[in-house]
Amino acid sequence: MGTSQAGANPKLATIKALLAKAEDSATPEAEAELARTRAMEMMAKYGVDEALLSDGQPSRDAIVTRHVDLPNPWSMPRARLMYFIAEAVGCQPIHIGARGAGVRRVKIVGYESDVQRAEILYASLLLQMFNGLNAQVVPYGVRSARAWRNSWQIGFIVRVTDRLKATEEAARAAAGAETSAAGRSGELVLAARDAMVQAAFKAENPSVRTQRGSYSGNGYGAGAAAGDRADIGGTRRVGAATAGALAA
User: Fold this and answer.
1) What is the mean pLDDT of residues 90-95?
2) How many domains does the chain have?
3) The domain containing residue 84 runs over which residues?
4) Is the per-residue pLDDT at 50 higher than 50?
5) Contact call for residues 115 and 93 (beta carbons, < 8 A)
6) 104 falls in which pLDDT band (50, 70, 90)?
């Protein structure tokens, strides 16, 4: 699926419109929640549908490698968020590291439709995370406000992407009995795609070992609670301030 095709895809266009409605401060809260709920349901189903439709047609949805540069402020939390979202939607990411001038790079290997899904979700959840962070009051007595804010973001990222994984897994489970364009079961198609992504990643990065870290910190619990409330579906909005007000 080329870039022009992606831009014209009616399903993606609908998902983006729903997310835009949900993020608009003029949208009533009840409508925003409904829009986000529907957007997330459609996003997960879109990923499965693309896998089934593209089975046996590698040119329709090929494996690609994307390099995403994440700038300051908060380049490391941005990189974590991008990494875990990509992982949740079936891609294999790797954090390349600092690229100078406060920029970090995440490399993503995955099917193009899944990489696109990761990018769309990242844009929405990044805004929610920054809005939520900007609304926080650092507790009295905290030695480092920056460290507290960093741990808050880690808590948000871990919890919200765990929820995203659960949504994706539910959609995959529901598709297990469906049949692809090539006549294979949905379960077999999705397993084969996972294996192909892993093989492509290992071919490009033969010496890399992937590992998911565990995190803690004084702000972690508050951030995790905000992640529980993040608008992946049927939840309340996190914060209302703009990301531009954040300090680095």
Assistant:
1) 95
2) 1
3) 3-245
4) yes
5) no
6) very high
